[in-house]
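Exercise 7. Given the encoded structure of a 111-residue chain, write a plausible sequence.
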């Protein structure tokens, strides 16, 4: 992943509703969820939901597929991993990094 694509992805996530949508889709896994259900679960109006999903799709952070009359959105895990890889490339300059704390432990302490 190059710098420009990373900036586009980070810019798409730099908004509260889009970050919430992306985090929900990450939790749902490859199955994803219909746009209407995402909006209902997060309390986002349908017109806003379309805009936010368009921005996430433009950044290649989500993919869409048609299932009957519904459009199902899923997180694009490959792109998410590329962004994380770009941000952590050459971490600590080849030196041993400080101890890593598991994500779930951090989340539990915050709650």
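Solution.
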């Amino acid at each position: 992943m190059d710098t420009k694509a990373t900036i586009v992805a980070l810019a798409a996530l730099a908004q509260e509703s889009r970050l919430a949508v992306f985090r929900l889709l990450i939790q749902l896994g490859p199955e994803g969820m219909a746009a209407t259900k995402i909006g209902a679960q997060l309390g986002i109006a349908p017109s806003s939901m379309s805009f936010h999903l368009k921005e996430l799709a433009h950044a290649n952070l989500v993919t869409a597929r048609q299932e009957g009359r519904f459009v199902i959105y899923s997180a694009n895990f490959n792109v998410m991993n590329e962004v994380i890889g770009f941000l952590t490339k050459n971490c600590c300059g080849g030196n041993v990094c400080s101890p890593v704390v598991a994500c779930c432990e951090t989340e539990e302490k915050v709650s």
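Remark. The two ends are 33 Å apart (CA to CA). Students should compare their own answers with the one above.
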